[in-house]
Write a structure and sequence with these properties.
Arc Repressor Mutant, subunit A
Length: 115
């Protein structure tokens, strides 16, 4: 019977979940951290942080992780982060990217892959 192999079944079951699996797992905490760093840790007075928290809750991110990301952005706790937001346009305007990274090494690596 054509199309009834085990791999075909696995491919159709796992395909959509693999495609969408980690898309927000790294970007949402970074967005919360950058928002808290730029405008403070109070979501009532910081619209960027508020929208990042709403997006994280829409993706079912636990409140503990949200609080940890806010503390990381405001500098509280042991794991305070130093994310910097920057925009760059490379390759004579052919490649533009927004980057939130932990340091210049990551930025250089991302510049090399941009093409």
């Amino acid at each position: 019977m054509a199309g009834h192999s085990k791999w075909s079944k696995v491919k159709h079951i796992k395909g959509p979940s693999t495609r969408n699996g980690g898309s927000f797992s790294a970007s949402l905490p970074k967005e919360i951290t950058v928002g808290a760093r730029m405008g403070g840790g109070d979501p009532a007075g910081n619209p960027r942080l508020r929208s990042a928290i709403l997006a994280a809750r829409a993706q079912s991110m636990p409140n503990d992780n949200i609080d940890r990301a806010i503390k990381r952005g405001t500098g509280e706790g042991a794991d305070a982060a130093n994310y910097e937001e920057m925009s760059m346009s490379l390759c004579a305007g052919r490649c533009g990217a927004d980057d939130r990274s932990g340091g210049p090494t990551t930025r250089i690596a991302r510049r090399r892959t941009c093409g």
